[in-house]
Amino acid sequence: THFGFKTVNKEDKEDMVKEVFDSVSSKYDLMNDVMSMGIHRLWKDELMNTLNPTPGSHLLDVAGGTGDVSFRFLDRIKNSPNYFPNIASSSTLKSSSLPSSATVYDINQSMLNEGKKRGLTMGYTDLSDPSIDWVQGNSENLPFKDETFNCYTVSFGIRNCTNIDQVLREAHRVLKKGGRFLCLEFTQVPNPLLRYAYDTYSFNVIPVMGQLITGDHDSYKYLVESIRQFPNQDKFAQMITDAGFKQVTYKNLTFGVVAIHSGFKL
Ligand code: SAM
């Protein structure tokens, strides 16, 4: 099958990934809920618990898709006790807090467009505080200056990249000193029995559900196969360290179906 990407070249893989997300963008949020039985929401909440952002933070959410992680980040800022929006009113006695922002960065414009629509319904725009903007591009090559952001997240996005080492080097470059890298990604279930159950579910059930909901069996088959190809937790932690990050750690969620990797630029 042409989805066995060990045999495809770089351009083919990029085209294929683009095609996969083009074909699923409008049903992407629904599919996430169906495939993970809603658990992806808890995983993303846990990612935000780990980051625990405060006003004045600037997030780069790479492979941010329709903005799930960024919206959580903005909601946290808004609910923070130190958040005072910048409202020009003479009756406002409290000084405003530092502005905060999230930049959603994704290779696929149709995913960003879906997200932008969601953002408007939630009141988040490039002019709101906290603000959100949507930038299209490849995670291997970021159009941002060195030391721009305090936080970098990549949620279910690094697995699809052709050159993961390059993605990590770019993450390190755009983070400020003291900034944090966090990655949420499908990983390897360490327990063999649980792994067997999980493999059976993902190989047999997910492509069929993908077919039923989006009419696209192969895209979901590709997504499942790409999980198998991704390095295990320890190997990925080593890659993050090799890119220059310090204090690299990870925690498994849901028996290691996914993990959150963390590193700091010091
Ligand atoms: N982060 C979002 C979430 O957790 O819901 C979206 C994850 S979605 C599974 C993966 C995203 O990665 C897609 O939106 C896809 O377009 C994007 N993507 C794939 N390869 C990319 C690349 N090389 N550079 C930037 N984005 C990429």
How would you explain this protein's 3D organization?
With 266 residues, this protein is an alpha/beta fold. The chain has a single domain (10-264), classed as Vaccinia Virus protein VP39 (Rossmann fold). Helices cover 45% and strands 19% of the residues. It contains nine helices and seven strands. A seven-stranded mixed beta sheet has the order 3-2-1-4-5-7-6, sandwiched between helices. Strand 2 (101-106), helix 5 and strand 3 (131-136) form a beta-alpha-beta unit. Helix 3 packs across helix 4 and helix 7 (192-214) packs antiparallel against helix 8. Residues 1-7 have low confidence and may be disordered. The site of S-adenosylmethionine (SAM) has 19 residues, from helix 1 and helix 4. The site of S-adenosylmethionine has 19 residues, from helix 1 and helix 4.
Bound molecules: S-adenosylmethionine
Report the average pLDDT across residues. 89
**First CA to last CA: what distance?**
44 Å
Q: Tell me how many strands there are.
A: 7
Strand content: 15-25%
CATH superfamily: Vaccinia Virus protein VP39
| Rg | 19 Å
CATH class: Alpha Beta
Query: What strand line-up does the widest sheet have?
Result: 3-2-1-4-5-7-6
H-E string: HHHEHEHEEHEHHHEE
CATH architecture: 3-Layer(aba) Sandwich
Net shape = globular
